[in-house]
């Protein structure tokens, strides 16, 4: 029997994150967006709870609960405000990237001093197409948009290595269409000294899988919020003598939206479980991200559509949810970069399935 229930510890983690999101993030999401920042007291409270180190090893000051715990926390924070969820995890996927390449020693050396500084941020850039250029011990490159107004440590991840930069990082503030609570900047690095570098394709695949799982969790959390809000609106809005949710076409659409959330969540949790179990997760994480990005496009647009003209007004959250979902889908190279890693599994799966079917038929 397959049991999808969380154990007691993970259930408590999820409950704590849900309560924090409902009470602290959701009511103030518009204020966070307008200010492009979170109140210091809120960031301190989240740090004391331990959201930012939920998947760090205990010996490094974390909770040691793994990738699934990170997903559960990120989903729930993102349901309240994905920009705030990013800001409350100031080193994000950089932590697991460093751990993949350099182990706990790399965490202690590069991130512990960073977290001791107020407002410090680390950012991960995935160089999917090999556009960042190395010249000896110097690195040059450009990211058209990152959801942050500050970068103290830049980690550039490629398919075969990781490079760290702390100097020569130039940010140009952008208005930003989505994730404004975390900030929005164009980033340039011109012959910046490389502080540390590793070359290891297996570690790169592991680091990228962790990053994609965390990004997919942000998407799933926000698409859940959009699907749920539009459903509740449709149950309250009356047309032709009954709630619009009771009209067949709209009822079917609402079901499809919630099915899309569930499908993305199941793939996401499987990828996180694989990471925690030490199983190959590159293709599972890529598939989970593709599903999350594509379903987010479907859910965001239709959440606005269910509200009609009101969906484009700031009085309702769905216009922001649409912007947030589209912005999240651009990170880590988007769905196109993820397909490069999901493709081998997609090609192999039909062959394996047919072989299994034939063998079963012959045995019968």
How many strands appear in the DSSP assignment? 9
Class from secondary-structure proportions: alpha+beta
Main sheet characteristics: 7 strands, mixed
- Radius of gyration over C-alpha positions, nearest whole angstrom: 21 Å
Average pLDDT rating: 92
The ordered H/E elements are: HHHHHHHEEEEEEEHEEHHHH
Can you count the helices? 12
Ends distance = 24 Å
Question: So what's the overall shape?
Answer: globular
Task: Give the proportion of residues in helices.
Answer: 55-70%
Poorly predicted runs: 353-364
**How much beta, percentage-wise?**
5-15%
Considering the chains and any ligands shown, give keywords for the structure.
364 residues; alpha+beta; seven-stranded mixed β-sheet; two-stranded antiparallel ribbon; 58% helix; globular
Write a brief structural summary.
It is built from twelve helices and nine strands.
Structure description:
With 364 residues, this protein is an alpha+beta fold. Helix content is 58%, strand content 14%. Helix 8 packs parallel to helix 10 (282-307). The strands form 2 sheets. Strands 1, 2, 3, 4, 5, 6 and 7 form a 7-stranded mixed β-sheet that branches. Strands 8-9 form a two-stranded antiparallel sheet. The chain is globular.
Q: Layout of SSEs?
A:
Layout: H1 8-25, H2 29-35, H3 40-49, H4 66-80, H5 82-87, H6 94-110, H7 112-115, E1 122-126, E2 133-135, E3 138-146, E4 153-157, E5 161-165, E6 169-173, E7 185-199, H8 201-236, E8 238-239, E9 242-243, H9 248-277, H10 282-307, H11 318-328, H12 334-363
Parallel strand pairs: 1-4
Antiparallel strand pairs: 2-3, 3-7, 4-5, 5-7, 6-7, 8-9
Helix pairs in contact: 1-4, 4-8, 4-9, 6-8, 8-9, 8-10, 8-11, 9-10, 10-11, 10-12
């Amino acid at each position: 029997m397959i049991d999808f229930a969380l154990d007691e510890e993970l259930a408590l983690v999820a409950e704590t994150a849900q309560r924090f999101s409902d009470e602290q993030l959701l009511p103030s999401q518009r204020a966070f967006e307008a200010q492009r920042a979170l109140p210091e007291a809120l960031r301190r409270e989240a740090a004391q709870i331990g959201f930012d180190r939920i998947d760090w090893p205990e010996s490094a000051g974390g909770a040691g609960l793994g990738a699934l715990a990170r997903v559960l926390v990120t989903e729930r924070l993102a349901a309240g405000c994905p920009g705030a969820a990013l800001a409350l995890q100031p080193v994000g996927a950089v932590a697991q990237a460093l751990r993949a390449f350099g182990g706990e020693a790399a965490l202690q050396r590069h991130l512990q001093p960073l977290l001791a500084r107020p407002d410090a941020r680390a950012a991960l850039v995935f160089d999917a197409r090999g556009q960042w250029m190395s010249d000896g011990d110097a690195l040059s490159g450009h990211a058209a948009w990152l959801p942050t107004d500050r970068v103290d440590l830049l980690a550039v991840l490629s398919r075969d290595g990781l490079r760290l930069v702390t100097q020569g990082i130039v940010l140009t503030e952008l208005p930003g269409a989505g994730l404004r609570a975390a900030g929005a900047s164009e980033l340039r690095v011109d012959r910046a000294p490389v502080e540390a570098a590793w070359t290891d394709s297996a570690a790169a695949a592991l680091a990228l899988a962790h990053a994609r799982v965390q990004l997919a969790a942000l998407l799933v959390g926000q698409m859940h919020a959009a699907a749920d809000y539009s459903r509740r609106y449709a149950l309250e809005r009356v047309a032709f003598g009954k709630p619009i949710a009771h009209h067949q076409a709209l009822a079917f659409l609402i079901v499809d939206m919630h099915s899309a959330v569930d499908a993305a969540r199941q793939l996401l949790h499987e990828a996180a479980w694989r990471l925690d179990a030490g199983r190959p997760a590159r293709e599972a994480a890529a598939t989970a991200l593709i599903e999350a990005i594509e379903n987010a496009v479907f859910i965001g647009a239709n959440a606005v559509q269910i509200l009609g003209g009101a969906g484009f007004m700031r009085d309702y959250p769905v216009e922001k949810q649409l912007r947030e979902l589209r912005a999240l889908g651009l990170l880590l190279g988007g769905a196109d970069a993820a397909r490069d890693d999901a493709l081998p599994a997609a090609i192999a799966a039909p062959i394996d399935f047919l072989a299994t079917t034939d063998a079963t038929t012959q045995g019968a």
